[in-house]
């Protein structure tokens, strides 16, 4: 079954510009403030020693290392980090061709101070780096910000949602709930192509009201019900498919374990959990576009882009089986697991 409601051209390069907007800021911070590559060249550091040496948060260190490996600046052998030839030639203080002074000319940018703070504390910084803005979770409680942010996610979903519908056979299921579903664009798109489904969207206030308007505009108010609630507390029962699209990347491992456990508890027997996102390779070597996106999430939320293996381990630990990844479109994929 092939769904033909995509644009003629591919916007992935445009989406990457937005998603990777903080990547260079992280590189500048590492070079200018940490002298990261010079220090790595001096010492044999594994991951734990690296975090201790630079006094940086483990989640942020993981995101940073994945990015530098993807860039070809760091290699990891038997757990030890090494600089590559490119890094040793151009990013060490002692090199004749060192570009450290060149990168350091950007250290006065206000965002660099916030990036350093993110690395050191592991705490989300204000959305967009604004001095007077709260972090993303607090900002989403404000109707103006929530409306702006939800509209942005809706526009992205218009491209990515048909990719899910085109890669998974929904015909043998009866219902789907879009958890943390923002505007409900994913549920609406899937139901548009699979009329056998009824749907739901679970969102906190004030986003639930925004979702109601969006679903009505799409003409799906009779087939999709909006639920106001906190996904960390409970998920409405009675659904065959639990869709988490671009949700897990906002939260840490412990929080995602709660979400996946809540899903298993309330999902119908024989049902499917479906995690749609940009996912890091199991060996954390890329892809580069996802590693760049992970930096934005590290900076602004409690999460990052997770690897298939990281999420798969959580899914198995709560009882899901037959876990597999299915590539969709762009650099996105769905990780699915079944509740037997």
Can you characterise this structure?
With 340 residues, the protein is α/β, with parallel strands linked by helices. It is built from 15 helices and nine strands. It has helices at residues 12-19, 23-32, 36-42, 47-54, 58-71, 85-90, 100-104, 110-121, 136-139, 143-167, 185-193, 207-217, 253-266, 288-300, 308-318; strands at residues 74-77, 80-83, 175-179, 198-203, 224-228, 241-245, 272-278, 321-327, 332-338. Strand 8 (321-327) and strand 9 (332-338) form a beta hairpin. Helix 2 (23-32) packs across helix 8 and helix 10 packs parallel to helix 11 (185-193). It is elongated and about 65 Å long. It starts with 11 loop residues before the first helix and ends with a strand.
Quick structural overview:
Helices cover 46% and strands 15% of the residues. It is of the alpha/beta class.
Which strand-content bin applies to the residues? Answer: 5-15%
* Principal-axes shape call: elongated
Class derived from helix and strand content: alpha/beta
Strand line-up in the sheet with most strands: 5-4-3-6-7-9-8
Q: Extract low-pLDDT stretches.
A: none
Tally of extended strands?
Answer: 9
For the CA atoms, what is the radius of gyration? 21 Å
Number of discrete helical segments: 15
Order of helices and strands: HHHHHEEHHHHHEHEHEEHEHHEE
Helix content: 40-55%
Largest sheet: 7 strands, mixed
N- and C-termini, Cα separation: 26 Å
Mean pLDDT, rounded to whole units?
A: 92
Task: Give the secondary structure arrangement, pairings included.
Blueprint: H1 12-19, H2 23-32, H3 36-42, H4 47-54, H5 58-71, E1 74-77, E2 80-83, H6 85-90, H7 100-104, H8 110-121, H9 136-139, H10 143-167, E3 175-179, H11 185-193, E4 198-203, H12 207-217, E5 224-228, E6 241-245, H13 253-266, E7 272-278, H14 288-300, H15 308-318, E8 321-327, E9 332-338
Parallel strand pairs: 3-4, 3-6, 4-5, 6-7
Antiparallel strand pairs: 1-2, 7-9, 8-9
């Amino acid at each position: 079954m092939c769904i033909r409601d995509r644009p003629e051209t591919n916007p992935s390069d445009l989406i990457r510009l937005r998603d990777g907007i903080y990547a260079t800021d992280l590189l500048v911070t590492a070079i200018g403030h940490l002298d990261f590559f010079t220090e790595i060249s001096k010492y044999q550091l594994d991951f734990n020693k690296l975090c201790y040496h630079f006094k940086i948060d483990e989640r942020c260190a993981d995101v940073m290392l994945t990015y530098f490996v993807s860039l070809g600046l760091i290699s990891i052998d038997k757990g030890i980090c090494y600089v590559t030839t490119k890094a040793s030639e151009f990013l060490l203080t002692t090199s004749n061709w060192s570009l450290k002074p060149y990168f350091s000319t950007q250290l006065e940018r206000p965002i660099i101070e916030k990036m350093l703070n993110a690395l050191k504390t592991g705490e989300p910084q204000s959305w967009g780096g604004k001095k007077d803005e709260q972090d993303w979770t607090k900002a989403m409680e404000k109707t103006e910000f929530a409306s702006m942010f939800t509209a942005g996610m809706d526009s992205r979903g218009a491209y990515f949602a048909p990719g899910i519908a085109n890669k998974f056979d929904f015909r043998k299921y009866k219902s789907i709930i879009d958890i943390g579903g923002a505007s409900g664009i994913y549920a609406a798109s899937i139901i548009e192509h699979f009329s056998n489904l009824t749907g739901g969207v679970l969102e906190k206030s004030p986003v639930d009201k925004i979702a109601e308007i969006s679903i009505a505009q799409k003409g799906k108010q009779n087939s999709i019900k909006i639920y106001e609630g906190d996904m960390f507390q409970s998920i409405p029962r009675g659904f065959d498919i639990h869709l988490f699209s671009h949700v897990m990347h906002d939260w840490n491992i412990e929080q995602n374990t709660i979400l996946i456990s809540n899903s298993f508890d309330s999902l119908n027997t024989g049902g499917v959990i479906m995690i749609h996102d940009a996912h890091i390779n199991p060996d954390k070597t890329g892809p580069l576009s996802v590693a760049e996106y992970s930096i934005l999430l590290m900076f602004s939320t409690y999460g990052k882009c997770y690897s298939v293996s990281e999420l798969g381990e959580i899914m198995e630990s709560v009882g899901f089986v037959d876990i597999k990844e299915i590539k969709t479109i762009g650099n996105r994929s769905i990780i699915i697991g079944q509740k037997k």
